[in-house]
Amino acid sequence: MLHTIKKIGVLTSGGDSPGMNAAIRSVVRACAFHDIKCIGIYRGYEGMIDGDFIEMDARSVKGIINKGGTILKSARSKEFRTIEGRTKAHEQLKKADIDAFVVIGGDGSFTGAMIFNQEFNFPVMGIPGTIDNDIVGTSHTLGYDTALNTVVDAIDKIRDTASSHNRLFFIEVMGRDVGHIALNVGIAGGAEEILIPEEDLGLDRLVESLRRSKKSGKSSSIVVVAEGDKIGKSVFELKDYVDQNMEGYDVRVSVLGHMQRGGSPSCFDRVLASRMGVKAVESLITGKSNYMVGIKNDVMDLTPFDQAVKGKSKINMELLRVSDIMTI
Ligand code: ATP
Count of CB atoms within 10 A of residue 105's CB? Predict the structure, then answer.
């Protein structure tokens, strides 16, 4: 084994997601296992520029595997987008004798790491932490599974009230560019319609479909709407349109918002985070750099950053068909 790496930094960057703490824990413990020092970098690239570092050992990450959020805090750093900012960050890393870093975040964070690697030939590795599951090179990003469970739980609760009052609920879930969350929770929560960025159902077909489901004897309905759905209307505009064009339903809106990012990570996310942390550290030790760790068919995998940030993850078309069949 090449063993030129003696000290690894770890940071969380961009939007937080459940499982980030479990990934920090894994990176720290994998470093301890391989006798490498580990430094926690607070507040993403912002903290890197400021030299806001803390030495971490196996015991510093006790009791966090089950916690949402990130103990290292996260941030979006405008300064890191500039060469001056990145030069400052590089100087801080050198001053602290850090030889490589693992960044846990989304595609923006990986773009920053890739540019940093090109400029300073500094070894970097990425762990995809985002609830949207919108990154190419991994079937699951950290936090996605937890978010699905959180949203399904919320939908179940909303359905209880919807069916007691003959209500139609539009439930907005996260997913600006991709409909993974909406499509999966829509099926799991028994939604009548699922509106996603990849498909334009159109307002008339939406109303037609709701009329059909009412005719078939349904007394309540749930429509799951991804933030970036193709119809291009806000959930409130959708509500108004349906109010004006359909009778017999009391139409309500529920925007789930940031609660989708929180909560204790699921078993799946904890295991995934643990595997990704080990893979990231061991890849750096063996001289690899500029990759994102991912999982494909239950096998850990590496995808070059440039491919991970350029691609657009695709929804599973089979799920669309299953959803259509389920709403007969
Ligand atoms: P999320 O999926 O939650 O949006 P993200 O990692 O994509 O997470 P961004 O805000 O896009 O979040 O990126 C996080 C940080 O990465 C930015 O605040 C910035 O510091 C850095 N970054 C992003 N793009 C670049 C870039 N082109 N050059 C340098 N740094 C960048």
Answer: 29
Helix, strand, or coil (residue 327) = coil
Q: Report if residue 217 sits inside a domain.
A: yes
Q: Could you tell me if 59 and 139 are in contact, meaning their C-beta atoms sit under 8 angstroms apart?
A: no
AA identity, residue 18:
P
Q: 217 to each of 149, 171, 220, how far by Cα in Å?
A: 28, 21, 9
Question: Is 229 marked active-site?
Answer: no
Q: Are residues 213 and 198 in the same domain?
A: yes
- Amino acid identity, residue 253? V
pTM for this predicted structure: 0.95
| Ligand 1 site residues, Cβ closer than 6 angstroms | 13-15, 45, 76-77, 80-81, 105-109, 111-112, 115, 130
Q: Is residue 327 part of a domain?
A: no
Is residue 16 situated within a structural domain? Answer: yes
- What is the C-alpha separation between 254 and 166, in angstroms, rounded? 16
Q: What letter would DSSP give residue 266?
A: P
* 131, 50: one domain: yes
Q: What is the mean pLDDT of residues 178-184?
A: 95
Beta bridge partners of 142: 129
* Residue 183 backbone dihedrals phi, psi, to 5 degrees: -65, -45
Same domain, 109 and 15: yes
131 with 99, same domain?
Answer: yes
Q: In which band, very low, low, confident or very high, does the pLDDT at 163 lie, cut at 50, 70 and 90?
A: confident
Full residue range of the structural domain in which residue 180 is found: 145-261
DSSP reduced 3-state for 13: coil
Q: Among 13, 136, 310, which residue has the most ligand 1 atoms within 8 Å of its CB, making it the best to mutate?
A: 13
29 token code pair = 């413990």
